[in-house]
Amino acid sequence: MIRSRAPPPTGAPPQSKWTFPTYNYYYQPYYQNLYNTQYAASIAQNQIYYDVGLISYNQLTNGAAVSAQQYTSPLATQYANGAYANLTNKPSYHNTSVPLTHMEDHRDAFGFQLPITLGRNLITPSFAHSAESDYISFSGALNYSFSFNDKNTIVSTGWALNKDSVRNDVMVWVPKTTDDVFLGLVQLFGPKAYLTVNAALGFEDGYLADPYRGVMFANQLQFDPADAALYPEKRPSHRNTELLYASWTQFITPANGSAEFSYRLFHDSYGIFANTAAITWNQKIGKHLVISPMFRYYVQNAANFYGVIFPDSNYKPTFYSADYRLSEMETFTTGVTITWRVAKYLSLNAGYSRFIMRGLDGVTSESAYPSANVFSLGGSVYF
C-alpha cells in the first residue's frame, strides 16, 4: 500500500517568526574588515611623511581614517544591500504559514485473529505485522471475555504488546516497545439499551520522538527561508497513558433508530489531559438500509515540553518538541455512513466525514492544524 498524505509541518514556525540576519549583520563585519585593510594601507603609504616630520602623528592617523571611511562605506553599503536583498526577496521570506514537507511511503501489513468460544468464555489471540521504510512493527494481543447474568453482562480483559523498530533522526534503527492492558464491561439494560465501560493503561519505552520534526531556537540565525535550521526534537523515552471510556446505546422504538453517546477521558505522563465526546444516530430505513450521522468533539491541553520557538540552544530544556499534535487544541468531526445489507451474508458501506483541527494556545500558527475530507468504501462478509 502506498501511503501519501497532505504535506505535514516540519516543526518550524512561519518564516515571519524566524530569527533572520539583520542588515547590520552583513554591513558591519564587511565594513570593519575593509576599513582595517584600507586604514593600514593608508598608514603605510604616508608613513614616510611622518618620518621626515612633514606631518604629525594625528595628521597621519586622521587622514588614514578619513581615507578608509570614504573608500569603505560605499563598498560595504553595496555589499550589504545585495546580501540583504538576496535574503528578503526570496518568496518564502514573508510567509505567514508554517513550512510543510512532502511524505510518501509504502506499507505492507497483515494481521489475523482467532476467536475461540468455550461456553460463556471467548478467547481471542491476534497477531499483526507492518513494515515501512522507517518503521517495522510486530504486535500480538490476547483478549478474554466472560458472559454471565443470562448473557446480559460481559466482562472483558486483554493485553497487547508491540515490539517495533524505528529509524531515528540520524537514520539508525532503534527499538520501541508498547504494552497495553484493558478491562471492560458491557451491561444490557433490557432489549433496547446497553452500557459499555472500558479502562486501559499503556506503557511505552524507547524512541518516542518524531524523526521528521525539528525544533527552532531563537538564538539560531536562519539564512535560508526555504530550509529551516532545526534541532531534532527530544521527547522522554518513557510514556504512561491512562484511558477511561464510557458509552450508552439506546434504541428509540418510535423512530426505529438508535442513539449512541460516548465519552473518553485520556491522560499521559507528558501532562496531556484530553476529553472526547461523540454522538451517533443509526437510522434504519426499510429492512436493508441504515444511515448513521455522527458528531465528535475532542479537546486537549498542551504537553509540558511543547513550544513553538525555544529561547537558547546553549541552554536546552531536558525535553522539547514543536509538534502541533502536542499543543493545546480541539478537533471537530462530522460525518455520515450508509450501510446496505445486500444479502444475508454481505453488507456494503460508504462514508464521508469532515475533520477540522484548531489551536487554542494563541501562539501556534493556525496553518499548522490540518483539516480533511475523508471518504470511505467498505464491505463485510459474514460466516
Task: Write up what this structure looks like.
The protein has 383 residues and is an alpha+beta fold. The chain has two domains: 23-93, no CATH class; 97-381, Porin. 16% of the residues lie in helices and 48% in strands. It contains two helices and 19 strands. The chain has helices spanning 23-51, 57-88; strands at residues 2-4, 104-106, 108-113, 116-118, 121-131, 135-148, 153-167, 173-188, 193-206, 214-217, 231-232, 238-252, 257-268, 273-285, 289-300, 309-310, 329-343, 346-359, 371-381. The strands form three sheets. Strands 3, 4, 5, 6, 7, 8, 9, 12, 13, 14, 15, 17, 18 and 19 form a 14-stranded antiparallel sheet that branches. It has a three-stranded mixed sheet with strand order 11-10-16, with no helix packed on it. Strands 1-2 form a two-stranded antiparallel sheet. A hairpin with a 2-residue loop joins β17 and β18. α1 (23-51) packs antiparallel against α2. The longest helix has 32 residues, at 57-88. Mean pLDDT is 94; it is low at 1-5.
Q: What features would you highlight for this structure?
A:
383 residues, alpha+beta, Porin, 2 domains, 3-stranded mixed sheet, 16% helix
Provide a brief overview of the structure:
This protein has 383 residues and is α+β, with helices and mostly antiparallel strands. 16% of the residues lie in helices and 48% in strands.
Number of domains: 2
CATH topology of the largest domain: Porin
CATH architecture call of the largest domain? Beta Barrel
Kindly report how far apart the N and C termini lie. 27 Å
Helix content bin: 10-25%
pLDDT averaged residue by residue: 94
Q: Quote the beta fraction.
A: over 45%
Most strands sheet: 14 strands, antiparallel
Number of helices: 2
Number of strands: 19
CATH structural class of the largest domain: Mainly Beta
Give me the strand/helix succession. Answer: EHHEEEEEEEEEEEEEEEEEE
Structural class: alpha+beta
